[in-house]
């Protein structure tokens, strides 16, 4: 594959002045740390699979873009609120609440390393936060429109991918292209344009006479007087705990065992290449006293398969692919109009909010004739409403949501987190989602990918011994009271995970994980071991081994080794992966592409893969060769200026 990325930037940055050589060295160190953290977070989010494979991450890199913005203009911990801290994607709800409580009790931080005194914070976590935060003064920033327009950063990103091997018979060219321009001033202002075509789609040819297959534009502002957020164009919406609406990336069950609570701003700008999970229209959030009110409206054309009844749409299609005549025939088959609102009352100890969202379709949705689809929602209108809450009491944090659908079916979720000691956290979460409960964009913490037809209890514990040892574990039991796809009777299951990490020094980390799944469609044991070590100041070595065993297939193995070295302005990365799996099984790796790419690399069968990446300043060259039954070679080139 051939990948070309151009990045044009300029900005006036804040912070202490550094000698040019020191600044450049610090930027290289920071960039390496950022990429390592992105890979770790992707691995944790990818572990949230609900079947026999790991979850494919959506094409939404908004959180990655936000962290890159914080790396350029650091977040002030002495003025940041809960939403800003959550937008880092590095802290769970209990850590955020403990930090805010510490700041209210003792005042602004004098130094970033004062975080060691906050319950739940240790040196590894603080080192993770360092690239993005600083302990500034305790004064809220006051920016003018001139600041909003002139003090941000312009970014132009062009990504081009070309596979040299045949990928099938499609109407368009085999290359994949994404072009994005974005202006961003921290969290306060953002606007931009994104254009994208997938492999196999045409470009100014065939059915794509208008050029790219997907276009998106957004304009977003925060903190304009009483207007806390204003979104025009493309944006995402997150409500409560995801029982009725959640567009953003969110953790499920993973080695980050305490990340059970959904938390974040209701409105966020959308500047990613995914073509389904966002709204297009306008939204606004206003605040007066303790009350915050959000309202939004959206109108979009979506892909849909035709239903059996003439004039109806069977199901919505979220892939965004229009490579063949059959896929192109689904494009824009149905119009979705959406409205929603959130009314939130906030206090020092917590909040309570009312949420509502409704959808109207130009064609009625219809359900299939399978038994498990008996309770699927149909018709032109969808309506969901809920009440969510979060409260603190001493070292306890409670959160939850109760929702009801148009049909009167209910779903509830209630969770709690507690700090038992400075180095011990525990969490518990109960959910009960009705058989016929349906929501279109729900994404809550559960076994099912969307809310409905499930009840379960999740418990977790996190233990830390100083800065060297960390033990995390969870156990989840669940039940499906009605049929599911490929499961012809009510069923139940459980899964458990244990993860232990040892950091003998600041440059070495070893981690081992064991996961056991006992589900109606899969019984699996999986063992992972990985370690990373800085051999010298310029050379880092990483290794990973995965072993997976199911009752229906032989044992699968994967071993991955990677070495990264820096020399002046150059950086070299070489990797080798050996795998031996059943033809129907697959093992996954993250971080095999360029920074900001949420893709997962799947390895199936028996073979090996080699990877070489070279970076000079902002110029990248990436070469991959995978060998199984036949040789497939791919080359990627990335250029940034």
Secondary-structure map:
Layout: H1 20-46, H2 62-72, E1 75-76, H3 82-86, H4 93-106, H5 123-129, E2 133-134, H6 145-150, E3 153-161, E4 176-185, E5 189-197, E6 214-224, E7 227-237, E8 267-269, E9 279-288, E10 291-306, E11 313-317, H7 325-328, E12 334-347, E13 350-365, E14 379-393, E15 396-405, E16 410-421, E17 424-433, E18 454-465, E19 469-480, E20 491-505, E21 508-519, E22 522-534, E23 539-550, E24 553-567, E25 570-580, E26 587-589, E27 601-603, E28 606-616, E29 619-627, E30 631-639
Parallel strand pairs: 1-2
Antiparallel strand pairs: 3-4, 4-5, 5-6, 6-7, 7-8, 7-9, 9-10, 10-11, 10-12, 12-13, 13-14, 14-15, 15-16, 16-17, 17-18, 18-19, 19-20, 20-21, 21-22, 22-23, 23-24, 24-25, 25-28, 26-27, 28-29, 29-30
Structure in words:
- This protein is mainly beta.
- It has seven helices and 30 strands.
- It has a 26-stranded antiparallel β-sheet that branches. A two-stranded parallel ribbon has the order 1-2. Strands 26-27 form a two-stranded antiparallel ribbon.
- The two termini are 21 Å apart.
């Amino acid at each position: 594959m051939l990948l070309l990325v151009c990045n044009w930037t300029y900005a006036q940055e804040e912070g202490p002045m550094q000698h040019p050589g020191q600044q450049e060295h610090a930027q290289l160190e920071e960039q390496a740390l950022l990429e390592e953290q992105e890979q770790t977070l992707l691995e944790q989010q990818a572990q949230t699979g609900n079947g026999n494979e790991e979850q494919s991450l959506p094409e939404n890199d908004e959180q990655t873009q936000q962290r890159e913005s914080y790396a350029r203009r650091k977040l002030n911990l002495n003025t940041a609120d809960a939403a800003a801290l959550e937008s880092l994607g590095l802290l769970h709800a209990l850590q955020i609440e403990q930090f805010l409580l510490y700041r209210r009790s003792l005042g602004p931080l004098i130094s970033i390393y004062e975080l060691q005194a906050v319950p739940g914070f240790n040196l590894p976590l603080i080192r993770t936060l360092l690239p993005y935060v600083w302990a500034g003064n305790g004064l809220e920033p006051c920016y003018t429109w001139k600041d909003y327009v002139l003090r941000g950063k312009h970014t132009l990103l062009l990504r081009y991918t070309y596979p040299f091997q045949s990928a099938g018979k499609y109407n368009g060219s085999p290359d994949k292209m994404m072009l994005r321009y974005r202006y961003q001033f921290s969290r306060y202002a953002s606007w931009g344009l994104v254009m994208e075509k997938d492999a196999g789609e045409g470009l100014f040819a065939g059915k794509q006479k208008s050029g790219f297959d997907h276009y998106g534009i957004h304009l977003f502002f925060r903190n304009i007087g009483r207007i806390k957020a204003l979104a025009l164009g493309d944006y995402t919406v997150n409500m409560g705990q995801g029982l009725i609406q959640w567009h953003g990336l969110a953790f499920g069950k993973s080695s980050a065992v305490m990340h059970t609570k959904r938390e974040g701003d209701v409105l966020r700008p959308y500047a990613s290449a995914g073509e389904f999970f966002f709204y297009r229209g306008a939204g606004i959030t206003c605040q007066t006293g303790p009350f915050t009110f959000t309202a939004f409206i959206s109108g979009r054309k979506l892909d849909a398969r035709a239903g059996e009844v003439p004039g109806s749409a069977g199901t919505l299609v979220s892939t965004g692919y229009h490579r063949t005549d059959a896929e192109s025939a689904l494009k824009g088959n149905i119009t979705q109009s959406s409205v929603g609102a959130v009314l939130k009352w906030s206090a020092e100890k917590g909040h309570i909010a009312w949420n509502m969202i409704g959808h109207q379709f130009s064609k009625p949705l219809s359900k299939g004739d399978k038994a498990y689809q008996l309770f699927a929602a149909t018709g032109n209108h969808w309506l969901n409403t809920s009440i969510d809450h979060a409260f603190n009491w001493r070292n306890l944090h409670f959160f939850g949501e109760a929702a009801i659908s148009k049909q009167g079916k209910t779903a509830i979720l209630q969770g709690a987190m507690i700090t038992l000691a400075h180095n011990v956290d525990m969490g518990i979460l109960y959910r009960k989602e009705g058989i016929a409960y349906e929501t279109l964009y729900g994404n809550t913490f559960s076994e099912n990918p969307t809310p409905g037809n499930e009840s379960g209890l999740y418990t977790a514990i996190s233990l830390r011994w100083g800065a060297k040892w960390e033990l995390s574990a969870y156990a989840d039991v669940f039940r499906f009271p009605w049929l599911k796809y490929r499961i012809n009777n009510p069923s139940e299951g459980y899964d458990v995970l244990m993860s232990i990490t040892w950091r003998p020094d600041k440059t070495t980390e070893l981690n081992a994980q064991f996961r056991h799944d006992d589900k109606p469609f899969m019984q699996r044991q999986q063992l992972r071991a990985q370690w990373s070590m800085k051999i010298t100041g310029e050379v880092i070595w990483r290794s990973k081994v995965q072993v997976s065993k199911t009752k229906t297939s032989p044992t699968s193995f994967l071993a991955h080794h990677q070495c990264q070295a820096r020399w002046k302005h150059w950086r070299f990365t070489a990797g080798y992966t050996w795998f031996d799996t059943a033809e129907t099984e697959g093992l996954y790796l993250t971080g095999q592409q360029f920074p900001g790419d949420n893709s997962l690399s799947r390895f199936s069968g028996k073979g090996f893969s080699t990877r070489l990446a070279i970076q000079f300043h902002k110029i990248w060259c990436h070469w991959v060769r995978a060998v199984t039954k036949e040789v497939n070679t791919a080359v990627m080139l990335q250029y940034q200026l």
